[in-house]
Amino acid sequence: MMGPISMCLRLGRLAVDNSSHYGVYSAIATNLRHASVLPTRIGVRHNTTASEEAKNTENENLSETEKELKSKLDNITEEFEKFKVQSQQTLDMWKRGVADAENARKRTEKQLVDTRQFAIQKFAKDILEVADCLSRAIDSVPKTEITDQNPHLKNLYEGLTLTDSELHRVFRTHGLAQINPIGELFDPNYHQALFDKEDEEKKPGTVIVVQKVGYKLNERVIRPALVGISKAKAT
């Protein structure tokens, strides 16, 4: 059985031992708390870094997509501009083609009309000589001798005038008209002046003599009238 003194000493040692163990336990507990908090902080930092990296990667991918789309848009715009130029060129060529075709059609129509209207031009010019001979024959008949007492001459004259009248009717039917400008002002488009003569009664440039009548076929002059014109008296 322990005495009082021995009991006190034993209790003192236990107290010291417990106090020492308490410090150890306290340190371990503190370290354990720190260890439990550290992974959480590391996880948060790791998650933040991964999010930023993902965002950067997404931005990079978006930037590449934008560049690709812009490149495609530029190519489409360039092709569209080329297409516009080609379309305008094609339209211009089509318009020129239509205009050329229309001009060719008009030229062909005019040629056909001219062919119809002037196909007899050479024949008409040749037959005008016959008309001139007939006219000279009529003019050569002395008018004073055309009487009932001279029936043969009278019948001849009437036959000549009737033939001349019928010939000019046929001329008119085919567009052949006579140009007899006596008393008209000289027109170089229809008349050919052979001489001029002083005439105080006529305005200068007036046709005073028709030596040979002219003719036009469908308004085209095939023979100008051969004329003499008046001029002012010299002072």
Task: Based on the model shown, name its key terms.
single chain; 235 residues; alpha+beta; Nucleotide Exchange Factor Grpe, Chain A, domain 2; three-stranded antiparallel β-sheet; three-stranded mixed β-sheet; 6 strands
What does this entry show, briefly?
With 235 residues, the chain is α+β, with helices and mostly antiparallel strands. It has helices at 4-118, 121-140, 151-173; strands at 176-179, 191-198, 207-212, 214-217, 220-223, 225-231. β4 and β5 (220-223) form a beta hairpin.
Would you write up a description of this structure?
The structure is a single chain. This protein has 235 residues and is of the alpha+beta class. The chain has 3 helices and 6 strands; from the N terminus they run αααββββββ. Strand 4 and strand 5 form a beta hairpin. It is rod-shaped and about 145 Å long. Residues 14-22 and 35-44 have low confidence and may be disordered. GO terms for molecular function: adenyl-nucleotide exchange factor activity; protein homodimerization activity; protein-folding chaperone binding; unfolded protein binding.
